[in-house]
Known about the structure:
CATH architecture of the largest domain: Sandwich
Structural class: alpha+beta
Number of strands: 10
Number of helices: 2
Distance between the termini: 102 Å
Radius of gyration: 24 Å
Low-confidence stretches: 8-12, 17-36
Strand content: 25-35%
CATH topology of the largest domain: Immunoglobulin-like
CATH class of the largest domain: Mainly Beta
Largest sheet: 5 strands, mixed
Oligomer: single chain
Amino acid sequence: MMASGESSLHVTSVRKYFQIAVVGFAALAVATAAYGHDGSWEGDIGGTGPGFIVEVDHEDATPWKGWMTVDVTNTGDEPWGDFHFGIFDPTGGGQDISNVHFLDASLGGNDPTSSQDPFTWVIDNEVVGATIDLFFYSDPVLPGDPATFTVWTDNPDHLLSFGVCFYPTPVPEPASLALLSLGLAGILLRRRR
């Protein structure tokens, strides 16, 4: 026969193990949901422009929206001033991606994040193959430097997968920026007249 102190100790131990098991299963469920949708890629990019595009098949699951994170190192010889993301059809034409979008807080999602600070972004969800472009000219990714970019995707058609592509472009050289500025100033003057 057990003494009353031993019995309550046994019940307390069973409760404690039960609570640990419940917390463990809950943590596993949350981790599985995050893993099921959030995508990531880690690697090196050795150049700039669309010729150095990286394509990733992004597997999706409930809740059909989440983060795409890119951890990248600039192994080229030009500093990066912007980073471009796009949605594409990984099947080569058999999948309708027209309703897969990038969202920021103003569109009901989450703002992108970047290791480069400050940065701005432009989203275009009007085109099939939505795009988001991140700009960080005052804090470029120099050759040999790592960077992290995170964007929010939304997949209301519940596609099991869709493609996310991305590539960097260089910081514009001063002469190109001067010509661009002159062109914009000319357009503004012409509009005023």
